[in-house]
Amino acid sequence: MLINLSEVLTLEGKTEELSVPLEMECFSGRLGDFAVTEKTPIAFTLANAGTGKAKAEGSVRVSLAAACDRCLTQVPVHLEIAFERILTAPDVVAEDEEEAENRQLMDGWQLDAEALVYQEILGSWPMKILCREDCKGTCPVCGQNRNIRECGCDTFVPDPRMAVIGDIFNAYNKEV
Ligand SMILES: [Zn+2]
Ligand SMILES: [Zn+2]
After folding, report:
1. How many angstroms is it from 30 CA to the middle of ligand 1?
2. What is the secondary structure of 53-76 as a DSSP string?
């Protein structure tokens, strides 16, 4: 949803509180597509922050359907997102890199709330998703989920260390 910021950007001392629905049904990143299973509306507090500038503070809770990095069991990812951004009017020069980056969230005088939440999810995505801390993962030989049953395959590498190496590898691959 686009939020018109023309008043908060131009009227000194202007503040506004609003709640807008999050439209996102699915979060698509380099790691794949994750269905949004639960979400709250986005709560915004908007405040004028000088000529052509506005501060947008807010929060939203999102749950996504993801899978355990080791055994691929479905694991929900719950994110409690809180943000604070300085946004600028199209006719104002961004003062620093952060403001310039936030410009990407603006469509003229309007804030793209979906794009903002997308960026926030990207930034708060967990490095590691595990169904449980000691998840044994799947057997590299036969694919059996070893939390459910030991398959007895000869895998010669001790499980715990292999799992740790796997995590580092996954974390490395997760840089988005
Ligand atoms: Zn697992
Ligand atoms: Zn096996």
Report:
1. 21
2. EEEEEEEEEEEEEEE-TTT--EEE
